[in-house]
Amino acid sequence: MKILIVDDEKAIRNSIKDILEMEDYSVETAENGVEAVAKASKEKFDAIICDIKMPEMDGIEVLDRLVADGIESPVIMLSGHGDLETAVTCIKKGAFDFISKPPDINRILITIKNATDKANLVTQTRILKKKVYGQDIIGSAEAVGHLKDMIAKVAPTSASVLITGPNGSGKELVAQNLYQMSNRSMGPYVEVNCAAIPPELIDSELFGHKKGSFTSAIRDHKGKFEQADGGTIFLDEIGDMSLAAQAKVLRVLQEKKLTPVGGDKEISVDVRVIAATNKNLREEIEKGNFREDLYHRLSVIVIKVPSLEERREDIPELISHFAERIASDSGEPVRSFSPEAVKLLKEKNWPGNIRELRNVVHRLIILGGDPVSAADVRDNVDIN
Ligand SMILES: Nc1ncnc2c1ncn2[C@@H]1O[C@H](COP(=O)(O)OP(=O)(O)OP(=O)(O)O)[C@@H](O)[C@H]1O
Ligand SMILES: [Mg+2]
Fold first, then answer.
1. pTM to 2 decimals?
2. How does pLDDT run across 305-353, given as a tens digit for each residue?
3. Closest Cα to atom 29 of ligand 1
4. What domains lie within the chain, and their CATH numbers?
5. How far apart are CA 165 and CA 239, in angstroms?
6. How many CA atoms lie within 13 A of 266 on its CB side?
């Protein structure tokens, strides 16, 4: 663990340095703000302890620079007599905590431990999110190129997005990529499958409820929109959402406000909405199942995910990709597919699109030979 201590007083720098070195931290020091910012942008510190009152560049300015430069090391401020208020300002600006001077040994050690624990959690979360939500979109067909361009353009904006496309074509994957590439990627990502929630519960699932608002509401419940505050909500199968819930979603989009079931207070939320459906929403509007105004709100940006038929040339690449993924999940060597087997799969119809292809590759790896042959395909796959 590496810590940077910034203070213009040599005695303070050295006493904190001694304490930390006794606990096996490796310590660097800086005697002014300029030196501190330079050191922090050159190497990564697990925490930075920074005095507030310093000649020339003071602690607040150091903090501002670090935040502006995107340096993520937690910063602990050292506040002397009379600058408690400044210390509070620093916390608002993103400092992790503050310690009053003269610094107490235990307080320093505990605060550093808390700061580095938190920094570790943030890193872990980022790695995990990348693993779960950061899967690449495989394919080089023209239609996929368009899709990726569209995602790159739309992701960094806060615009709501409607993703359409047939079953298993990769709508959820597109939503996850939008989230990963957005500037809300450090915020929450909440997925809701609207088709899986009974209509009478969808209101309370999405918008929360107050204790006692219906028989089984034994305590306050935070809805998915509130959980997604500051981040992104993915409303999957939005075509299956009740009209009542649609009205509330529209209100969140227009006014950034919602009211929980049984509540009388409005709650403000800042949520980016990504929705997906394999239904034809225009037809649903005709039938009176979908609100036209919500459709217009959502469809400012529509991303249409191509069917596998529109991108057949990607089938060989997708087969290798799934064969590799399956091998790495099971720890077995990667299985190959004979050119004839690939050809048969390339010509087959794929009503279930990429999900179906993935399942077929899995089946052939279990049941077929090495390499998987054309005969294996004929025996185990309905090649219509
Ligand atoms: N371009 C792609 N590259 C790699 N994997 C893909 C790609 N598109 C889809 N997949 C994989 O195919 C499977 C189905 O994709 P996904 O769940 O995103 O489809 P969907 O359109 O949401 O399906 P449904 O209509 O059933 O909700 C997932 O395992 C996904 O990771
Ligand atoms: Mg889906």
1. 0.73
2. 999 999 999 999 999 999 999 998 888 899 999 999 999 999 999 999 9
3. 355
4. 2-130 (3.40.50.2300), 134-306 (3.40.50.300), 309-380 (1.10.8.60)
5. 12
6. 9
